[in-house]
Amino acid sequence: GAVVSQHPSWVICKSGTSVKIECRSLDFQATTMFWYRQFPKQSLMLMATSNEGSKATYEQGVEKDKFLINHASLTLSTLTVTSAHPEDSSFYICSASPQPKGWREQYFGPGTRLTVT
Amino acid sequence: GNSVTQMEGPVTLSEEAFLTINCTYTATGYPSLFWYVQYPGEGLQLLLKATKADDKGSNKGFEATYRKETTSFHLEKGSVQVSDSAVYFCALSDGYGQNFVFGPGTRLSVLP
What we know:
heterodimer; A: four-stranded antiparallel sheet; 51% strand; B: six-stranded mixed sheet; 50% strand
């Protein structure tokens, strides 16, 4: 149980275009989902926290208008990278938490590798 | 704020050697502690966890004990295998399973 999937696993897009990444909790309802970014050979950096039905909370330094997050249902959150540039190339990982409080674990997706040419 | 410090890698060991990856943390309250493993090109997999002081997490031969007095959660394995080659992340969360903070990761290479 507690499986989180991401789609696509790998995407290449041209500079200036937008790309959407989906994060789904397959066997539980995720009240809260998290989006992380990982640069090569570095640790994960939290980008934003999204709660179902409300606006995402972005970490300091993360551009809200560039990284659009939508958490429309209890099993799906999407991250849209708008007007992508080569510096946006990275590994994006989502995680999901079954409950807003009282649960001590997040379940991580397999990640999406974005390459912007 | 909360933080996690890990020993810098890369760590290179021969097969069947003993492994220790140090992890120390700074946190307020009563955090939960985790070790995650990331194989090349993949996402994170939970390796083990501990939710309160003196708890020992264990999985696949790996162990770590939540030491509140030393604010540590060192990862150990008695005999590593080539298949253990990966990046290991120490992490903590607050008491509600949120506000995850990851260490920088330690790359382990096990040679046959």
